[in-house]
Amino acid sequence: MHPPLTLHRHPMCAEIIEEFQKCHLDHPIGKFFGECTELKIKLDRCFRQEKSIKRKANFEQSKKLKERLQAMRKEAAEKSSEEKFMGA
Fold it and tell me: Mind listing the UniProt keywords for this protein, alphabetically (predicted)?
């Protein structure tokens, strides 16, 4: 099973998606007997590669966000400790 074959959601795999959909249109019965299997395999590989790239980008983005949050927490902790020191 594959995700919905919308071209705008899978720009990396657009060409293979078009070929796969064309194969299904050209072989309405043959598609059930493996006529489009090679394209399906290519499509699955492309989706895996696309997902891997997105996963890496999301991981890098989350690392930057975590670093920023830690810096903000550290700054807030330093501020509150200074206020306690000045108030005492």
Answer: Disulfide bond, Mitochondrion
